[in-house]
Write a structure and sequence with these properties.
Oligomer: single chain
Number of domains: 2
Shape: globular
CATH superfamily of the largest domain: AhpD-like
Structural class: mainly alpha
Number of helices: 10
Order of helices and strands: HHHHHHHHHH
CATH topology of the largest domain: AhpD-like
Helix content: 55-70%
Low-confidence stretches: none
CATH class of the largest domain: Mainly Alpha
Distance between the termini: 30 Å
Mean pLDDT: 96
Largest sheet: none
């Protein structure tokens, strides 16, 4: 059983209440993971600023990374959330499952991105040279590489927060890869 309850608006600081109100207006609710960040006076704002910072990666490309990293880190919350966001960004259920496994046979450039994100996460940044070479050969730049690594870090933080606190998932559950590929 979790020792962390999801804090309500009344249980967080005034600054975090303002962020909760903004999330209610823009997203329609305050995701449990974001609410959990609000245990800290600064972490929610800092996380949202970092997560929403300008990047060379498009929204769809960011979801490739989010799905691959969340699968490696076995984060049920982020897999559920990014499965939903992946669908919003135009990925099919089958494509989302493939991205979670760290590949994308349907798009060579996204395949190189998914493979890199998975490899960085699995190897804690000690990226295999062949994977990196394939990434650059697929047309990605050094700027894209730095932004990819930043996003791997961003997603890993959320994965670790959820995996440590075990807060309830408030998105439709993502199927496990084992269920699908058995």
């Amino acid at each position: 059983m979790s020792t962390f309850n999801v804090p309500t608006r009344e249980e967080v600081s005034t600054n975090n209440q303002v962020i909760f109100d903004h999330l209610e207006k823009t997203v329609g609710f305050v995701p449990n993971l974001f609410a959990t960040y609000a245990y800290s006076e600064n972490a929610l704002k800092n996380y949202l600023d970092f997560s929403n910072a300008k990047t060379s990666l498009k929204a769809k490309e960011k979801e490739v990374i989010n799905l691959a990293v969340s699968q490696v880190n076995n984060c049920d919350y982020c897999l559920a959330a990014h499965t939903a966001i992946g669908k919003i960004n135009g990925f099919s259920d089958t494509q989302i499952l493939e991205l979670r496994s760290g590949s994308a046979s349907f798009d060579p450039k996204l395949d190189a991105l998914a493979r890199l994100a998975r490899n960085i996460t699995e190897n804690r940044g000690a990226t295999d040279s062949e994977v990196l070479e394939n990434y650059f050969n697929a047309g990605w730049t050094k700027e894209n590489l730095v932004d990819t690594i930043a996003l791997v870090g961003d997603k890993t933080i959320s994965n670790y927060l959820n995996n440590t606190t075990k807060i309830p998932v408030d998105f439709p559950a993502a199927p496990s890869l084992e269920e699908v590929f058995v």
